[in-house]
Write a structure and sequence with these properties.
It contains eleven helices and ten strands. By secondary structure, it is an alpha/beta fold. It has a single domain, classed as Alpha-Beta Complex (2-enoyl-CoA Hydratase, Chain A, domain 1). The strands form two sheets. Strands 1-2-3-5-7-10 form a six-stranded mixed sheet, sandwiched between helices. It has a four-stranded mixed sheet with strand order 4-6-8-9. The chain is globular.
Length: 257
């Protein structure tokens, strides 16, 4: 297995999407992983568990975004399909009719943070570190990150953390509203158990109707955001500095392998 896989299960009314990376590697995303994620999300909609958890098999990494294969093959022609695929899959996740919780342990960066933000809630261990880090390579968030990051922490803070690319620790992330809970591994497990138990005990239709109302309020803005991010991503790839940054990054990674 040389790429991240998605493991899927439903047990006692709880659905789980588990990102499983090759041994010693962080979970990453490419077209095949996104296809697999899309298929699993469709199964969740059809089988309708009461709650869904999105998590990683690793306690060091949640997901660090696009993998090297994607970056090596990204250009002005491939970027739009890649951006639109991410929007389609993450919007499907956001639109699931039941509560969806991202369980973040370790690093959630770039597209990995966008994956977490497509969930209703983000619960994290105290070891979690999050960043919208695309500017370091000359990119913008391409899977709804511009909209979802702003929605969670507001425009000024979104600008601060995107402009700087600063890593955000779990405690700070709770303080600014990026995540909804942070604690020790034991506290995280307890919070997750208590919240899941409460959700399972509530009326499924009422929860679905509430979520649908909230999501519908911004659907037009979400659809427009996909086109804007795709267009701006082309602009980024046409920039000579981005091309150089990407070349330098891939060269550095190649030397390490």
């Amino acid at each position: 297995m040389n790429t991240t896989r998605i493991q899927y299960k439903i047990e006692d009314g709880v659905g789980t999407l588990l990102l499983v990376a090759p041994e010693g590697k962080p979970p990453t995303l490419d077209a095949a992983v996104m296809d697999e994620l899309e298929q699993c999300i469709a199964k969740l909609r059809a089988e309708a568990p009461r709650i869904v958890l999105v998590r990683s098999a690793s306690d060091r990494f949640f997901c660090v975004g696009a993998n090297l294969n994607v970056l090596q093959n990204t250009d002005e022609q491939t970027i739009v399909p890649w951006v639109m695929q991410g929007h389609r899959v993450f919007n499907m996740l956001e639109d699931l009719p039941m509560p969806v919780v991202a369980v973040v342990e370790g690093y959630a960066m770039g597209g990995g943070l966008e994956l977490a933000m497509a969930c209703d809630l983000i619960f994290a261990s105290e070891s979690a570190k999050l960043a919208q880090s695309e500017a370091g390579l000359g990119f913008i968030p391409g899977w709804g990150g511009t909209r979802r990051l702003t929605g969670r922490i507001g425009v000024p803070k979104a600008k601060y953390y995107y402009y700087s690319g600063k890593m955000i620790g779990a405690t700070k992330a709770v303080e600014i509203g990026l995540i909804d809970f942070a604690g020790s591994k034991e506290d995280l497990d307890a919070e997750l158990f208590g919240f899941t138990e409460a959700v399972v005990g509530n009326n499924t239709n009422a929860l679905s109707q509430f979520k649908t109302i909230l999501n519908n309020q911004e659907r037009a803005a979400r659809d427009e955001n996909a086109a804007v991010e795709a267009f701006r991503s082309i602009n980024c790839l046409q920039d000579s500095d981005t091309k150089q940054r990407l070349h330098d990054f891939l060269t550095k990674k190649g030397k390490k392998q």
